[in-house]
Backbone:
């Protein structure tokens, strides 16, 4: 027979493991196992808004475990995960969303970028489609879309995805909060691209 103190400790531990660590709706917790990397991971830089309404580069090849780091230039851009078939709309409730990055133009005409970046991890070899959700100027519908690890053996190409985006008549969608990646300090804000 167990003593009352052992039962009390067990019940306390059980209550702690079943309690939610955050109030519902304020955080996304990824409970999947992650890899431990022996060497630094590769980072691919993507610039939102350099040279107009586009991502540069817009077609990225990146190995599993690498980081895609989005930098933002004037005036106001975001990045949202979509599906090939439904551009300009979040893929699903778990799709990544950076939030908006308003960046003022430099008074002297020089290159400026956000003091923050948004990073996602490439977790598998499936294509990751994304877009800018800025509706002023209809960025996604104007071709501000991109892909990580596009398959080159079928008809799901970036060019076809841009055609589908151009046909979207409504506004671009966003998630209710920033999720699926990490906003962090820009590691090289004076890079000048």
Residues:
């Amino acid at each position: 027979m167990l003593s009352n103190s052992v039962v009390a400790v067990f019940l306390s531990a059980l209550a702690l493991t079943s309690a939610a660590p955050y109030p519902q709706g304020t955080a996304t917790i990824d409970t999947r196992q992650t890899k431990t990397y022996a060497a630094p991971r590769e980072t691919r830089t993507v610039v939102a808004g350099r040279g107009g309404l586009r991502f540069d580069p817009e077609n990225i090849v990146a190995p599993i475990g690498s980081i895609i780091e989005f930098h933002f230039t004037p005036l106001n851009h975001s990045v949202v995960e979509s599906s090939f078939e439904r551009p300009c709309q979040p893929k699903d409730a778990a799709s990544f969303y950076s939030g908006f990055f308003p960046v003022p133009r430099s008074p002297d005409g020089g290159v400026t970028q956000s003091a923050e970046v948004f990073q996602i991890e490439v977790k598998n070899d499936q294509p990751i489609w994304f877009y800018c959700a800025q509706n002023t100027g209809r960025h996604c519908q104007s071709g501000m879309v991109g892909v990580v690890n596009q398959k080159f053996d079928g008809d799901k190409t970036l060019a076809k995805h841009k055609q589908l985006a151009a046909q979207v008549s409504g506004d671009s969608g966003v998630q209710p909060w920033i999720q699926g990646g990490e906003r962090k300090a820009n590691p090289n804000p004076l890079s000048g691209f």
